[in-house]
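Sanity check

After download, print the first record. It should look like this:
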Amino acid sequence: MLRNPLVLIILMLSVSILVVGCSSPSEPTDLTYGSNSQPDDDDNDNDPIQPVVTTGVDVGNEAPEFTLADTYGDNVVLSELRGKPVLLFFWATGCVYCEEQYPRIQGFHDSYADSLTVLSINLGDDPQLINAFMADRDLTFPCLVGTTAMQTAYEVTGVPHALVLDVEGLVTFNNHPGYLTEANLMEEF
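Expected structure tokens:
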């Protein structure tokens, strides 16, 4: 008999591998990938493939949905603005660099009111202060009162910041508003 247990183990493993490796299943197997291992009865090869739309602030993504109050307490829902491009301008009253952008944003609002929705989103200021601040500078573009959740969703880490959304709510521009000129704004819509 075999006295060395290691030889016995190797012999048993070899026989097991030979038996298992050489056997074939009694029924054909259907290899599937993903979590759905059952065929879908209502699959139709003629259905068009639906594109997957990602929500986020990268160019090409669908902008995150929001409902924010303006400085007068009226709610604005982003998805209700579809049909026209939207310029979102994030700012704060204490921002020196924002001050440089107000004339440009006001110009966009004045020049393209029929074809572009301009929304400013103030981060951190009281609505009464915002209204007084805007009145002192003759700014007439709408202003929403931003929230921390909205700032996080839009990944705004500093102001000023601007995004342009197309008529379907997809991000076409996400950058410092100083880079958003009238010429490249026109390219966005």
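If your output differs, re-run the checksum step. Summary of this record's structure: The two ends are 87 Å apart (CA to CA).
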